[in-house]
Amino acid sequence: MSLRSPLGRVLGLGSAKDGTDHWWAQRVSAVALLILGGWFGYSLIRLDSQTYLDVVRFIGQPLNAVLLALLSMTLAYHSYLGVQVVIEDYVHAPGTKVVSLLLSRFAHVFVAIAAVYAILVIGIGR
Amino acid sequence: MVVRVRIRPDMAIGRRAVAASISEEEAIIMSNSGRPLSPHLTIYRWPITMVLSILHRMTGVAMSIGLIVLAAWLMQTAAGPEAHLRFTYMMSTIVGQLLLIGWSFAFFFHAANGIRHLVWDTGRGFDKRQADRSAWFVVVFAVVVTAAFWWAAS
């Protein structure tokens, strides 16, 4: 048990060090996703069919591959930022919270890498 | 909700010791201790703005799960024609189609409501009637664009 008052413990520590970074990153990725998501929706409509050959031909176009990789990474980033806030809002037990945040980060990085790797494989071939 | 309280030695000393050593976890336990609360969420008729606020979060979480399916689509395509066919077959079932329609609605809704949030960020549109009107616009927009998207894609 500490005899220091709650005020004494936080004095001199400065701010939470985080400032508006999270908020701003969420907005920037949101704007990027409006553009990339719009492009993706339009491309899905333009795609002749969802068959293997058409999908491979679509991703085989370099510009499409780059935009799709950007979309996947930005989606994962924006999704991570959002899920982080949801966890922080609803999961309060310190242990569960840290584990949930860790798992969320790992899952998002995994999904982003998987998507980008798959795009490279389709675009360049094995 | 079941709350388990760990009894620590210093808790036995008295109220003052407990209060001085309170942790974040214990503060939450205390706030759930059954003391009377002001009426909130459960008793009010939900205004449309409140519905959209929670829907924004729900569609966001839904798309976080959808992101896994998007990555699976790419991975299965990278794996070859058979894997790709297995994926498109799964998505062509009724459950798969309903999920895809749900995710497309989630996207258009979250995007439109996201623009609403970006406008709010500039300090505009907070008036109660404006917020109600933009809320209904977002709902109608999302439904119409989702329908148009599936009509155009078919």
Task: Please give a handful of descriptors for the protein shown.
heterodimer, A: mainly alpha, 3 helical TM bundles of succinate and fumarate reductases, 0% strand, B: 154 residues, mainly alpha
Strands, helices and their partners?
The complex is a heterodimer of chains A (126) and B (154).
Chain A: H1 6-10, H2 21-46, H3 52-60, H4 62-90, H5 94-124
Helix pairs in contact in A: 2-4, 4-5
Chain B: H1 15-20, H2 24-31, H3 48-79, H4 81-92, H5 94-121, H6 128-153
Helix pairs in contact in B: 3-4, 3-5, 5-6
What's the short version?
The complex is a heterodimer of chains A (126) and B (154). Chain A is mainly α and 126 residues long. Chain A is built from 5 helices and no strands.
Description:
The complex is a heterodimer of chains A (126) and B (154). Chain A is an all-alpha fold. Chain A has a single domain (20-124), classed as Up-down Bundle (3 helical TM bundles of succinate and fumarate reductases). In chain A, 79% of the residues lie in helices and 0% in strands. Chain A is elongated and about 70 Å long. Chain A starts with 5 loop residues before the first helix and ends with a helix. Chain B folds into two domains: 1-37, no CATH class; 48-153, Up-down Bundle (3 helical TM bundles of succinate and fumarate reductases), CATH 1.20.1300.10. In chain B, 20% of the residues are buried. The chains are: A mainly alpha (126), B mainly alpha (154). The interface between A and B is large, with 36 and 35 residues.
Largest pleated sheet of chain A:
none
For the record, the CATH architecture of chain A stands as Up-down Bundle
Examine the coordinates and then state which fold CATH places here, giving the name of the CATH topology of the largest domain in chain B: 3 helical TM bundles of succinate and fumarate reductases
The total count of helices of chain A amounts to: 5
Q: How many angstroms separate the termini of chain B? A: 47 Å
Number of helices of chain B: 6
Coarse shape of chain B: extended
Strand content of chain B: under 5%
Helical/strand content category of chain A: mainly alpha
Summed over residues and divided by their number, the pLDDT of chain A gives a mean of 93
Strand content of chain A: under 5%
Low-confidence stretches of chain B: 7-20
Rg of chain B, Cα atoms, Å: 24 Å
